[in-house]
Design goal:
By secondary structure, the chain is α/β, with parallel strands linked by helices. The protein has three domains: 2-101, STAS domain (Transcription Regulator spoIIAA); 114-151; 153-373, no CATH class. It has twelve helices and five strands. It has helices at residues 38-42, 62-78, 89-101, 114-148, 155-165, 170-192, 201-239, 242-248, 253-291, 296-304, 309-335, 341-373, and strands spanning 2-3, 10-17, 20-28, 49-59, 81-86. Strands 1-2-3-4-5 form a five-stranded mixed β-sheet, with helices on one face. Helix 2 packs across helix 3 (89-101). The longest helix has 39 residues, at 201-239. It is elongated.
Amino acid sequence: MVAVPENSRACATAEESGGVLVVVVSGVWRITAPRPTWVGFLAGRTPPRVRVEVAGLEKWDSSLLLFLFEVQQWCRVAGVDCNLEDVPQKMRTLLGQLETAQATSVPFNRSESFLTSVGAATLETSRKVAEFSRFVGDFVLSTVQFVRSPHKFRWRDCLNEMQQCGAMALPIVSLISFLVGVTLAYTGAIVLRQYGGDIFIADLIGLSMVREMGAMMTAVVLAGRTGAAFAATLANMKANEEIDALETLGISSVHFLVLPRMLAMLLMMPLLTLYANALGILGGMAVALGLLSISPTAYWVEMLTIVDMSDLSVGVIKGVAFGFIVGLAGCLRGLQADRSAVGVGQAATSAVVTAILLIIIADAIFAVIFNILGW
C-alpha cells in the first residue's frame, strides 16, 4: 500500500487487487495546501486498470479535481482503463467541465474497447427508443381522453396555435410555393420546347405540385418555422420548470401542451397543402403565359386532363402525415431538451433536422405504397 504523508491532509491510498489499482481519496483537499501528484503516486508502476473511489472525504475544492484530471489524462495517454463510477456525479460533472476548459492535444481515449463503445451506443439508442415510445403512448392516451371528453379540451389554445401555424404561415408558404412552380415550369420548358410539347408544361406542373411538391415544400417550411417554435417554447418551459409544475399538479404535459399543437398542425397542414398547390400551379401558369405563350384557359384545360381527385387525395394524405411528423418532432425535442439556454437552441435545431429527415423518409415510403396501390 502507498500513502501520502498525513500532514498534507489530502490523503490518497492505492492498493493493487486483481490487476486493478484501486485509488482511494479522503481527507481535506485545499488548493493552498500540499496535495499528492499522480506521477509521484504511481512510482513508476503501469497498472492495466485504475479505479478511483471516494471514502472519508471531508472537504475538497479544485485541487481534488486537478488530481483526478491528472489520473484521467495519464490513463488516456497510457491506454489504461479509468473507472470513475464510484466518484460522485457532481464531481464527475465538474471534471468534465474542467476537461472542456483545458482542452489539450491529448491522444484519443483508447481505454474503451470497440465492444464497450458498441454497447454504450446500443444502450443510448434503447434509451431514446424508450423515450419516444413513452411519448407516443402518452399522446395516444391523451387523444383517447380528448375523444371521450372534447368539452374538457383547451380549444382556445388550439385555435391560437392554428392561427400561428396556419394563417401566420401564409406569406412564406405563398412565396415558396409560387417560386417552386415558376422554377419547375422554367426547367420543364427547356426540355418540352425541344419536342414541340409546350402545352404539356401544364401536366408537369399540375402533377408535380399536387402529388409531391405542394405537400413537401409546405412541410419543410413549417418544419423550420413552426416545428422549431414548438421545440423552443417547450424547451424554455422545461428550463423554467413550468412543465415540472404541471406534473406536480397532476396535469399531463402531453395533454396540456402537446395535444393542442398536434391537433392544430393536423388541421392546418392539409389546408396549407391545397393552398400551396394552387400557388404552384399559378406560378407555372405565369411562366407558360410569358415564356411559352400558352393562355391560362388552355393551361387549365390541359392540366385537368391529367390531374384528378386521386392525385389531389395523395397530396392531402401526405400533408396530414407531414403535419403529424412536424408537430411530433417539435414537441418531442422540446420535452427532451436540457434545462438551459443552450438546450433551447439545440432542441430547435434538432427538431428541424428530425422533422425534415422523417419527412423525406415518409415521402419515399408513400411513393412505394401509392405505386403498389396504383394511385
